[in-house]
Amino acid sequence: EVSRDDPETAFCTLANREELNPEEDSIHHCLYQFTRNETLTETNKLLCDVCTQRHCGPKNNIKSEKKYVYTNAKKQMLVSLAPPILTLHLKRFQHAGFNLQKVNRHIKFPEVIDLAPFCTAKCKNVPEGNTKVLYSLYGVVEHSGTMRSGHYTAYVKMRAMNNHLSDLVLRGQSQALETEPVKGQWFHISDTHVQPVSVSKVLSSQAYLLFYERLL
């Protein structure tokens, strides 16, 4: 979605992202980097319709690409609609020459995450005045092995039904949301083997996919 807001407020977020100081190898650092402000210059300049019309005139029939006017610009990707379910997919591969190599290092992730520093200040389904958009972890997918072969397992939290989440899914809003992690028991699932595990075991896993449900 292209934002045409005032340039002074277009890059504002619900919470001050500059106070985050995210730790390296953490999901906060990943989100911070993914939503960072970028400057588009040189070959990445933006085609500006307003500048083109100002330079060539609105009635000109522009056939040659040379008549288009490109300008420096700023770009930032932010969340404009906080989803009921937040799914985070970690890029666990990197280029090593002409080959792909799996990234096995641990990425830290919390049981409760605040998405506000990564949401636009005018996030559509966040009540005015709210400076937090909280999510509770309920599922993790982990991959062991290499880029060529391996095994997928999952951690899932068995919990009571989240009525607030149902309100968000069906009506787009909820009147009363929680701020604490949803209570429940974690289980590790590997094919037909299912066993209870502690939350510390879950948080120490090498996550490939993270699933969070909306709290606030």
From TrEMBL:
<dbReference type="InterPro" id="IPR028889">
    <property type="entry name" value="USP"/>
</dbReference>
<dbReference type="GO" id="GO:0016579">
    <property type="term" value="P:protein deubiquitination"/>
</dbReference>
<dbReference type="Pfam" id="PF00443">
    <property type="entry name" value="UCH"/>
</dbReference>
<feature type="domain" description="USP">
    <location>
        <begin position="1"/>
        <end position="215"/>
    </location>
</feature>
<keyword id="KW-0378">Hydrolase</keyword>
<dbReference type="GO" id="GO:0005829">
    <property type="term" value="C:cytosol"/>
</dbReference>
<dbReference type="InterPro" id="IPR001394">
    <property type="entry name" value="Peptidase_C19_UCH"/>
</dbReference>
<protein>
    <submittedName>
        <fullName>UBP16 hydrolase</fullName>
    </submittedName>
</protein>
<dbReference type="InterPro" id="IPR038765">
    <property type="entry name" value="Papain-like_cys_pep_sf"/>
</dbReference>
<dbReference type="InterPro" id="IPR018200">
    <property type="entry name" value="USP_CS"/>
</dbReference>
<dbReference type="GO" id="GO:0004843">
    <property type="term" value="F:cysteine-type deubiquitinase activity"/>
</dbReference>
<dbReference type="GO" id="GO:0005634">
    <property type="term" value="C:nucleus"/>
</dbReference>
<dbReference type="InterPro" id="IPR050164">
    <property type="entry name" value="Peptidase_C19"/>
</dbReference>
